[in-house]
Q: What sequence folds into this?
């Protein structure tokens, strides 16, 4: 009998508080962000992404970066767990890196920071404001200094399967960029389908190439958007290629940083890639966790608490989100009710 092959244990990171909330057109209160981060930790997540240290004038959702990080580090709810949690913040440019390093020196900074490159020059320029050559040079300069401050570095590779600006891209170029990240000292790589361009067959093809070239699965994090509804199919394709690290958001929220917050136009990263901003978002944490649980994959998470937190995130943002399992629940295991 044929058996579907996939890893039986995974590491899941939740990035709701950063990537999820960055697309919201209203400011999410710091207390709400802190509550979500605490609940994620209490549910068993040991990798969470919580803020962006970039200029808050363009992304006011993160004007509370320092306050949120201080509150999370000082939280009594998770005081016994926080030392085992890897907290990530985004640091796309130099000043953001300097802020993260200073925060680290003051005792509340992140454990891991994230740089971003796109294989598409146009997409990369929009996100970072630099050419690819200049950005690589910047990263080579800062990675040793980040390590000296006691933080890890994640290097993102984006537009792997296509670019919303330029169109089709080459998978081989993304493999080359991934190798370059490791060569210049990055600790791991986020392989990102930032606009939902990846069909499952090409996801399997790409991650098979990655695992052939750089076979340590702990170095690779899969990041899928669901603009076209392929998110969980792509998770399964990546699992079959041997990927064990994934990230997602509660309710599948997230996407390009909002360019309109609390009734005020802001820079964000410019005009939205899609006319309808509601079609963006990531793989739903709730649905992915329940799917993996049903597949017998060990996530190390309290599934019921994850679902409860997802339902509360709907109340925080004020609308029904994409998760099905947050409402349908887990699959009952007896006639008398749900497990």
A:
């Amino acid at each position: 009998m044929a058996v579907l092959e996939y890893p039986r244990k995974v590491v899941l990171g939740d990035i709701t508080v950063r990537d999820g909330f960055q697309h919201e057109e209203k400011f999410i209160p710091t207390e709400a962000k802190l509550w979500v981060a605490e609940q994620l930790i209490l549910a068993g997540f040991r990798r969470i992404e919580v803020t962006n240290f970039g200029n808050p004038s363009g992304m006011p959702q993160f004007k509370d970066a320092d306050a949120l990080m201080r509150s999370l580090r000082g939280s009594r709810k998770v005081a016994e767990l926080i030392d085992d949690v890897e907290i990530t913040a985004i640091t796309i440019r130099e000043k953001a890196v300097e802020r993260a390093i200073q925060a680290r020196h003051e005792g509340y900074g992140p454990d891991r920071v994230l740089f971003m490159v796109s294989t598409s020059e146009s997409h990369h320029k929009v996100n970072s404001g630099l050419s690819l050559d200049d950005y690589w040079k910047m990263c080579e300069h800062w990675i040793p200094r980040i390590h000296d401050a006691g933080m890890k570095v994640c290097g993102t590779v984006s537009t792997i399967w296509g670019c919303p600006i330029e169109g089709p891209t080459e998978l081989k170029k993304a493999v080359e960029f991934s190798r370059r990240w490791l060569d210049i000292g990055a600790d791991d790589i986020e392989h990102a389908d930032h606009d939902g361009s990846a069909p499952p067959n090409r996801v399997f093809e790409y991650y098979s190439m990655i695992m052939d070239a750089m076979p340590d699965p702990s170095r690779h994090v899969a990041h899928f958007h669901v603009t076209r509804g392929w998110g969980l199919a792509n998770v399964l394709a990546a699992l079959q290629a041997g990927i064990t690290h994934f990230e997602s958001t509660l309710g599948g929220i997230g996407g390009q940083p909002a360019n309109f917050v609390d009734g005020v136009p802001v820079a964000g990263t410019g005009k939205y890639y899609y006319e309808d901003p509601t079609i963006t978002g990531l793989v739903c944490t709730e649905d992915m966790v329940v799917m993996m649980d049903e597949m017998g994959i060990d996530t190390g998470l309290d599934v019921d608490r994850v679902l409860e937190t997802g339902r509360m995130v709907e109340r925080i943002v004020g609308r029904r989100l994409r998760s099905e399992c947050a409402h349908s629940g887990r699959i009952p295991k007896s006639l008398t009710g749900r497990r």
About this structure: The first helix runs from residue 16 to 20. The chain has a mean pLDDT of 95.
